[in-house]
Specification:
Elements (H helix, E strand, L loop, with lengths): L1 H9 L22 H59 L2 H10 L16
Subcellular location: Cell membrane
Function: Essential cell division protein.
Family: Belongs to the FtsL family.
Length: about 120
């Protein structure tokens, strides 16, 4: 038995390659196909939302510019109306009408004058 024990100690075991810098086994593909699809769809939805926001902002800006243009034209027309009403009041003054009547040769006849009650 002692011989058997001695011979067994000298039998060499098959050499196992030892790699001192052994790295853990890498998994194939850290991200699965399903996760890739989810990530890509999330990015696509984010881009779509950003584009919709930009489109809405441009529409709002165009509407704002149109409103400002309309308000400006309304202000100009209101100013013209004010100027015209001042001109009407100047042209309808009693002195002016009387001077025009004299130029045309009309005379004031007190018996033909009728007083109209004020408005």
């Amino acid at each position: 038995m002692a011989l058997n024990a001695r011979t067994e100690t000298y039998i060499q075991q098959p050499a196992v390659p030892q790699n001192p810098s052994r790295q853990p086994a890498r998994k194939k593909g850290l991200i699965t196909k399903g996760e890739k699809i989810l990530y890509l769809s999330f990015v696509a939805v984010c881009i779509l939302c950003a584009l919709l926001v930009l489109q809405n902002q441009s529409t709002i800006q165009a509407s704002t510019q149109e409103i400002q243009t309309i308000e400006q034209s309304v202000n100009e027309i209101a100013k013209q109306n004010t100027d015209l009403s001042v001109q009407v009041s100047e042209l309808s003054s009693y002195e002016r009408i009387w001077s025009k009547a004299k130029e045309l040769g009309l005379k004031l006849n007190e018996q033909n004058v009728k007083v109209v009650p004020g408005q």
